[in-house]
Specification:
By secondary structure, the chain is of the alpha/beta class. About 45% of the residues lie in helices and about 15% in strands. It has helices spanning about 15-25, 30-40, 45-55, 65-70, 90-100, 115-125, 165-190, 200-210; strands at about 1-5, 30, 80-85, 110-115, 125-130, 135-140, 155-160, 190-195. Strands 2-3-1-4-8 form a 5-stranded parallel β-sheet, with helices on both faces. The structure holds adenosine-5'-diphosphate and adenosine monophosphate.
Length: about 220
């Protein structure tokens, strides 16, 4: 099973990819998480990516695709993966098609999670992210049981600097101009499914699961 989650920042991709990873038994691969980890470790990739994440712009060039390709070739992805935050441009979607041919894989489904802009800004401005496992919480919609600590791993929660209102608005603009065209790209391939993201996380999950019941394993 190989599922791509599309949707604007704050739509719930991270939340759903974690739930899907648990229910389908495959890892979540989130390019934003990989970049943030590289930045925290100050690796060459992190140093290169940091100015783009700080500004809310996309990291340019082929590095994101290369990163995804090598991640998907790791042993834990042999049964598939849930992709969160990639592809984010039509160019990346084309590169990804080439990668999939190369590694003899196919896409099961592409899920587009829709949420209106005013709700997205409310979600991003109240989001708290775990430094250790990248789980997300929301101060009103999904508070953690202990203030400042992750329910899943006990890690420390922080507010992503790019969730500030100014950078969040840039990210929404970048999404509309660069990522929204990816929806039509996958619509033409016949693999796209739309899901209403303005429901409880559990309802969004069951909508997704009811649409990804792909062919039984052989
Ligand atoms: P994305 O990965 O698409 O940027 P997240 O999964 O991190 O989005 O969710 C953004 C914020 O909205 C988080 O604070 C999260 O707790 C909250 N959230 C996620 N799904 C829902 C939902 N269905 N209803 C309300 N809040 C949600
Ligand atoms: P996210 O965690 O998905 O909100 O992504 C955070 C940031 O990481 C984005 O604003 C970009 O700077 C960068 N990023 C994540 N995924 C990609 C991608 N597929 N292509 C380019 N940049 C990306």
């Amino acid at each position: 099973v190989l599922i791509v989650l599309l949707g604007p920042p704050g739509a719930g991709k991270g939340t759903q990819s974690q739930l899907l990873a648990q229910s389908l038994g495959v890892p979540k691969v989130a390019t934003g998480d990989i970049f943030r980890e590289a930045i925290a470790r100050e690796t060459p990739l992190g140093v290169q990516a940091k100015p783009y994440l700080d500004r809310g712009e996309l990291v340019p060039g082929p590095i994101t695709t290369e990163m995804v390709k090598s991640r998907l070739q790791r042993e834990d992805c042999r049964k598939g993966a849930i992709l969160d935050g990639y592809p984010r441009t039509v160019e990346q979607a084309r590169q990804f098609d080439a990668v999939l041919r190369d590694i003899h894989r196919g896409l099961s489904k592409v899920i587009n999670i829709d949420v209106p802009d005013d709700e997205l800004l409310r979600r991003l401005s109240g989001r708290w992210t775990c430094r250790k496992c990248q789980s997300t919480f929301h101060e009103i919609f999904k508070p953690s049981k202990n203030v400042g600590a992750c329910d899943r791993c006990g890690g420390t929660l922080y507010q992503r600097p790019d969730d500030s209102i100014e950078v969040a608005q840039t990210r929404l603009r970048v999404y509309r101009t660069r990522t929204e065209p990816v929806i039509a790209y996958y619509q033409e391939q016949g693999v796209l499914v739309h899901v209403d993201g303005q429901q409880t996380p559990d309802s969004v999950l069951s909508d997704i699961l009811s649409r990804v019941q792909v062919v039984a394993p052989s």
